[in-house]
Amino acid sequence: MEEAARDENLRLEFNRWAAEGKGRGMEHEHLPIALPMLERIGFRDDDSVLEVGCGNGWLVRLIASLVPDGRVAGIDLSDQMIREARELSAGQDQVQFEVGTAERIPFPDASFTRAVSIESAYYWPDPAAGLGEILRVLGPAGSAWILINYYRDNHDCHQWGPLLPPTHLLSAAEWAKLFRKVGFAGVGHDRIPDLTPAPEEYSGRWFRDAAQLRRFRAEGALLIWGTRPLP
Ligand SMILES: C[S@@+](CC[C@H](N)C(=O)[O-])C[C@H]1O[C@@H](n2cnc3c(N)ncnc32)[C@H](O)[C@@H]1O
Description:
The structure is a single chain. The protein has about 230 residues and is an alpha/beta fold. The chain has one domain: Rossmann fold (3-Layer(aba) Sandwich). About 35% of the residues lie in helices and about 20% in strands. Helix 1 packs across helix 4 (about 80-90). The longest helix is centred in the N-terminal third of the chain and has 20 residues, at about 20-40. The chain is globular, with a radius of gyration of 17 Å. It binds S-adenosylmethionine. S-adenosylmethionine binds next to helix 1 and helix 2. S-adenosylmethionine (SAM) binds next to helix 1 and helix 2.
C-alpha cells in the first residue's frame, strides 16, 4: 500500500480511538511504565523534548513539569488526538502539538535534545524511517527513548496482533539493530516491569486470563535507547 493510503488508514483508526475516549484511558494504562523511563532519562531543566505518537498529550504535559526552562512538543498522525491534546493543554506555553508522522517529523534538523515515544513505534509503517527522522531532529548527543509493550520476546502479547491495526512484532535485538542501522550510537535495551497489581479475574479481550496478564506485566515493557553521535 502506498504511503498516503497507509497513513490515512492509520489516521482514521486512531481518530476512532480518540472519539471513543481511549486517549484518556492510555494515561492510566501507560503511566506505571512511563515513570521509570522518565527517571532513567534524567531530564535537564532546559531540555527540548519531542514525543512521537503523543496521543492526547498527557506525557508531554508531564515532561513539561520536569523541564521548567525547556519546551516539549508532541506529534501524532491522528488529528483528533492532537485536537484533544491542544484542548487539554490550553494556556500551557511550554508545550506544542502538531499533526505529523514519525516518518515525516514536522520540525527542522537538530531541534531537540531528547525524543521519547510510548506504545507507538510498532504501529509506524516504516520503523527505520521513523528512527532516522528522530535522529535527524535530535542535536548532537541528543538521546532517543522508545518504550513498547508489544514486542516479540514477550510471548504474552502476541495475541494482540489480530486485534490491532497493522503492526511490527520485532524483538529487542531487532529494534536495537534498527537503531544502529540508522546511525544511533550507545544503543541499549532493558525491560520495565509493570508493578501494578493484576486483578484476580480478567474478562477483557487482550489477555486469556488474569494469569497471563500477570505474566505479561512481570515480563515488562521493552525500553530501547540510543544517542546521536557527536560530529
Ligand atoms: C497506543 S497509542 C499511544 C499514545 C500515547 N503515547 C500514550 O501512551 O497514551 C499510539 C499512538 O501512536 C500514534 N501513531 C501511530 N502511528 C504513528 C506514526 N506513524 N506517526 C505518528 N504517530 C503515530 C497513534 O495515532 C496513537 O495516538
